[in-house]
Amino acid sequence: MSPSRKEVVKVLVTLAPPFREPPGSGKPKDAYVKTIGKLAPTSWKLVIPDQSTEENLVSLARDVEAVLGTSITRKVIESADHLKIIQATGAGVDKIDLKAAAEKGIIVCNVRSYSHAVAEHVFALILALAKHVVQHDTEIRKGVWNPNPSLILKDKTIGIVGLGSIGSEVAKRARAFEMRIIANKRRPSSEIRASLGLTFLGSEEDLSYILGESDIIVLSVPLTDKTRGLIGKNELNLMKKEALLINVSRGDLVEEKALVWALQAGKISGAGLDVFGREPLATDSTLIALPNVVLTPHVAGGRPNPDSDEWFTRLGFCIRNIEKAMSGQMPENIVQIP
Which among 250, 255, 314, 323 is annotated as catalytic? Predict the structure, then answer.
C-alpha cells in the first residue's frame, strides 16, 4: 500500500437488482456482500445501503472514495466529495451519470469478463427462433405434431451492430456456424476485420447497409444519448422480411412500439429480446402475446452464484481496479476518464 494512502477506504456497494433482496429492495443480498467482504482488502470499509433511494445514497456517498455497483445519479455524485472511481460490476454503465462523473473528475470503469456468456445467449436466442424451439416444445406438449421448416444458419449473413468485446465474441461463434459476418464499430480497422474473418467492417454511418444486408441483426452497442432509439420504424423498414432482431444490450436501443408494429405487420420475421425499456417487462406487454418473439429476463450476462468462480473472478477484477485507483495507478476497462 502506498504510504500516502489513507488506512481506511470507504466503498459504497450499490449492486444491480438481480443481486438485491426482493421484492424491490435496495439492499444487496447478504451472500454477495459476504463474498465482497472475503475478497476486499482489510483496509476497506464497506458501506451497505438498506434502500437504494437517491436520498439514502446521497447521504451514504458523502465520505466514500469508491463506488462498487451501478445506479449512481448526478445528485449522488455531487454529494461525494472524496469519490475517485465508480466501478460497475457489469458492462452497462447507462445507470451512471457519466457527465456528472466527468465534471467531478471521477473515473468510471466496467467489467467485460463475461462477454462470452452474452455471446452464448445471443445464439441461444437465434437458435430458438431459427429452429422454432419454443413453438415446437409448446405444440408437442399439447399433442400437436407440426414439423415446419427452420432457418439454416450456414451461409446466412449476421450483422453485428457494435463490435466491442461482446460483438467480437458473437463473431467468433458465427464463424463456427459458417455464417457471413458484417459489422460496424466506432473505430473500424482492417486488422480487426481480418482477425475475426469479417466480410465487412464499417463505421456507425454504415448502419443502414448492415440492416439491409443481414438475415440476423445483433445489437451489442452500449446505451447512450446517441444510441437511444437507434432502431425505430425507419430502421426496421430497412431490414429483410425474413430477418431476426436480437437485442442483448439495452431495451431502449429499440423503440418498442415500432418493434411491435414490425413484428405484427410481418416487416421482420422475429425478435429475441433479453432486455427491455422497462424491467421487469409488464405482464400486459404486447410482446408477450406475439408468437414470433422469444423473451428472457435480462440474463444474457449470467447471474453467478455468490460462491461461484465466475462471481469471484468478476469481483476480484473490480476490487483490483479500485485498488489501482486508490494507489494512484490507472485502472483497466475505463469507460470514461475525466
Answer: 250
> Is 298 among the residues known to form the active site?
yes
Spell out, as residue ranges, where the chain has pLDDT lower than 70.
Answer: 1-6, 16-28, 337-338
250 in catalytic set: yes
Report the pLDDT value the prediction gives residue 21, as an integer from 0 to 100.
60
Pick the catalytic residue: 21, 103, 279, 332?
Answer: 279
State the cell numbers at 105: 473528475
Residue 2 lies in a domain: no
Give the residue numbers spanning the domain of 256.
Answer: 115-295
What is this structure's pTM? 0.88
Integer CA distances (angstroms), 85 to 65, 69, 327, 331, in order: 7, 11, 12, 9
Which position among 255, 298, 314, 323 bears the catalytic label? 298
Q: With contact defined as beta carbons under 8 Å apart, do 190 and 173 qualify?
A: no
C-alpha cell at 333: 476497462
Do 280 and 203 lie in one domain? The reply is yes
